[in-house]
Design a protein that fits this description.
seven-stranded mixed β-sheet; globular; 267 residues; single chain; alpha/beta; 2 domains
């Protein structure tokens, strides 16, 4: 059976499974625990209850294990059948436990949609610089493998030529500290970065320089009002210019490591 006490003994496996390190999970767990009692009372106090508060079977897992289960579910995109086997629950209990805990996790985590709303309210230069150190932000997209679609049309539209498998794609924008300030809805894996950006992109203050990789070539021409930059394309065997090398490095530090640990949530 998979649980916190077992998985935390192997920090590398813990991060691979949940997307968080053990200290990061402990911090999140303490925040969830502090807010859980009030959240649960509010959830149980709904007016359409058919039974008294306290009726029904109690949760089989502790709050810590249910939080771990939610993170594993969204980070690895596992089926509910496999999750039921790993956590020794029924498939229906897996889905019910995750659904009941999701709203509380939404309140605690700095979710992209909340950060985007905060960005839109920025007014002074000091507020903008505090949110965007160096007045920089970086944009990239990442793909997540999905089971092979049964529908023939979806098999074609969701097949990624880059990954050589069926995927969905999500676009993320982060500040220089790696904080996600924009997340698009997932789209079919065959969609390229440029049309995805034209379909949906972050709304940022004009002072922010938004950087993307070579997949976003053409954005500056199509949207001249955006402060958008892409690295210079290499020509022949010549080395990349210094400013381009610095741009690539800073972007990699802000988004490269982040992409591997993004929680695949659509809350």
């Amino acid at each position: 059976m998979l649980n916190y006490s077992v998985l935390s003994k192997s920090p590398s496996h813990f991060k691979n499974f949940s997307g968080l390190t053990v200290p990061e999970f402990d911090t999140l767990n303490s925040q969830i625990t502090a807010s859980y009692q009030a959240f649960e009372q509010k959830r149980l106090a709904r007016t359409d209850r058919k039974r008294a508060v306290g009726a029904g079977h109690p949760f089989s897992l502790t709050l810590t294990d249910r939080l771990l289960m939610l993170l594993v579910y969204y980070h690895l995109y596992l089926s509910s059948n496999l999750m039921a086997y790993l956590f020794n629950l029924t498939q229906s209990n897996i889905l019910k436990d995750i659904r009941k805990l999701e709203p509380l996790v939404c309140e605690v985590l700095p979710l992209p949609r909340k950060m985007q709303a905060k960005v839109k309210r920025l007014q002074s230069i000091d507020e903008i610089e505090a949110m965007f150190p160096g007045f920089r932000a970086f944009l990239d997209s990442t793909e997540q493998e999905i089971p092979r679609p049964k529908n023939r049309r979806r098999r074609k539209t969701h097949y990624s030529g880059k990954k050589k498998r069926h995927t969905v794609k999500t676009q993320l924008a982060v500040n220089a500290d790696g904080l996600i300030i924009h997340k698009s809805r997932h789209v079919r894996g065959s969609m390229q970065d440029y049309p995805l950006f034209m379909h949906t992109h972050p709304s940022l203050p004009g002072q922010i320089r938004l950087g993307g990789d070579l997949g976003y070539q053409g954005v500056r021409k199509a949207c001249p009002w955006l402060n958008f930059v892409v690295p210079c394309k290499r020509k022949g065997s010549g080395s990349v210019v210094l400013k381009d090398a610095i741009f690539r490095l800073s972007r990699k530090l802000s988004t490269g490591c982040l992409m591997g640990s993004v929680l695949w949530w659509s809350m």
